[in-house]
């Protein structure tokens, strides 16, 4: 799959996720918010139940203990009146009784127990200060639900279980209370499924069981749980989602726009080029340079080619300018240097007269960075500096002071320097005199006018004259016809390159071409014609 197709596929997936994820996230957040709020509400109910239970138990204990010190004759009118007064004034106590030798002798209502005589209930729990608690105690005077019997000494107080959970509940809430050590004491409220209340007392904190929301609290010897049916929570959740859903939709729209913007940037030519540089999708082709006097190949210009993963070649005029504008030309130049040294090392070592020319970017001409790059690449390669030419364009040498310094340093290191594409910039003698050059390359746009009668065709003669006056080697670019080659040779041009001789070649084909010219060397200045293009692309577009 090509990089573009991968980006398109990624965009489709990312757009779908960006549209759905915020909405789903808001739905989830709304559920979490409602669940959190519901558990906090239930925890407050459980805390209230414990507070109520502790208050009822403490009040009952105090009432029982207040009777013990009283010097009242057991079951006398005064004694019964005192028990009755405590029962009436207490919010928790329903009845009180007095026992002698474990047998009920009188109650808070009368002294005649008659057939209601009963033994004191066996306690299931005793506090540290001697208060005993018994379960399922029947009323002393009437039929009804069994109560808790809280006993201290000879006195017993009967308390309805619901007194321990006597808090105001909202609809649907169920509460359950247990005394740590002897189990459930009371529960009431909305209906719950069998076993849910018991399960609620087994844990602490937030619990969700069989569709019920539960909050359980344990404190001061009591454990209380508040329970609500999940259907009630879902109703609340629906109301919350009315607020969260629009936020999710707005976030989704924003994320979709961001994804589309990012994907558009990644599909831009610059992003495509950046990825290609990162993945090193570039190769080097070599444009043979022919000595006009002998027809021998004496070198080549290293030209960068972008080969996509599918094998297609991107034309240089589509990416070189973008690389220069974006600064990517620097890592591309480094790639060319490393590739030339790696691919051409053996051939250059065998023929010390052979050279490879490398194009130098304007920024490198200004800073001189390329000199260190080339020096490191050549270290240990046994390639001589004079075998690596550097070519700078007129545009790259606009800052003459900086360019002159870089050119001078390069020549001191042994490199030959050529001014590329001459004729497209300043193109005057004063300009050339300010730059320490070894060779001048005539731009192919002027070579193409030879024999056409165009008004600019005479310019090439002036360029040749200028170069000769400065004793520079002359290289003509873009030579495509025998007429052009003859014209240039007649006027003393030293070297030429172009599709008349060969298209830019991969390294194996260039080496074969170079060897072929060596075999023919000595037969005279016959034009050597190499492999001709199979592509329909114009030579002007690819010879760059």
From TrEMBL:
Subcellular location(s) per record: Cell membrane
Domain EAL: 266-518
UniProt xrefs under PROSITE patterns: EAL (PS50883)
Bilayer topology annotation: Multi-pass membrane protein
Enzyme Commission number(s): 3.1.4.52
InterPro entries the record matches: CSS-motif_dom, Cyclic-di-GMP_PDE-like, EAL_dom, EAL_sf
Protein name in the entry: cyclic-guanylate-specific phosphodiesterase
Organism per entry: Herbaspirillum seropedicae (strain SmR1)
Lineage: Bacteria, Pseudomonadati, Pseudomonadota, Betaproteobacteria, Burkholderiales
